[in-house]
Design brief:
Length: 193
């Protein structure tokens, strides 16, 4: 018998974050939120994002870190620039990625969403490897949570306007949704419409 905390995707690293908890009763998962993150800002690579999600970010390692080292945050998944992915929170648990948020009149989006962080910034285009991995992971998530339709995939800026800007102007929604539609067509059985 499976229970909460069992939904870990195969084929990627698992680094369970302490910054997660059980979803409130009565909340089904029906939203996917895409973010961007880089630590330090605008720099890629290294283990600082993992350190942040595990509450072990050294505030003396970079001036920017002093302001964020005490945050308790996480995302379900992180996709690095090369497409490598890590899962930090089981998909059936609540990750702490959205903060104060609202989608279609529903507050506290963490309660009913899955958060994916792309290593990147508002100033930098994302890599093809990231789009491909995001597409693959999105399809896996949609298979587990069919209520997450393409219309229920949003950016952090959509649920926290004025407070957040990610995934930013360089995230190509058309490219991502085209990849997603193409993958859907490939997986659809012949004769299925």
């Amino acid at each position: 018998m499976s229970g909460p905390g069992d939904l870990w995707l195969a084929g990627l690293a698992h680094e369970p974050s302490p910054n997660a908890d059980e979803r409130p009763a009565g909340h089904s998962v029906d939203l996917l939120v895409i973010h961007n993150i880089s630590l330090p800002p605008g720099e890629f690579g290294g283990g600082y994002i993992t350190d942040l999600f595990h509450n072990r970010l050294d505030p003396s390692a970079h001036p920017y870190f002093a302001a964020i080292a005490g945050l308790n945050v996480s995302a379900h998944l992180l996709i690095r620039r090369d497409g490598d992915a890590t899962q930090f929170v089981a998909l059936d648990r609540r990750a702490w990625h959205a903060g104060p948020s609202n989608h279609c009149g529903r507050e506290r989006c963490n309660d009913f969403s899955i958060g994916i962080e792309l290593e990147g910034s508002d100033d930098t285009p994302f890599s093809e490897a990231q789009y491909l991995r995001l597409t693959d992971l999105t399809r896996q998530i949609q298979a587990l949570f069919p209520a997450i339709t393409p219309q229920r995939i949003v950016g952090h800026s959509d649920i926290a306007p004025g407070r957040k800007t990610d995934p930013g102007p360089h995230f190509d929604w058309g490219r991502f949704l085209t990849h997603l539609a193409r993958l859907e067509r490939k997986r659809r059985p012949i004769g299925d419409t």
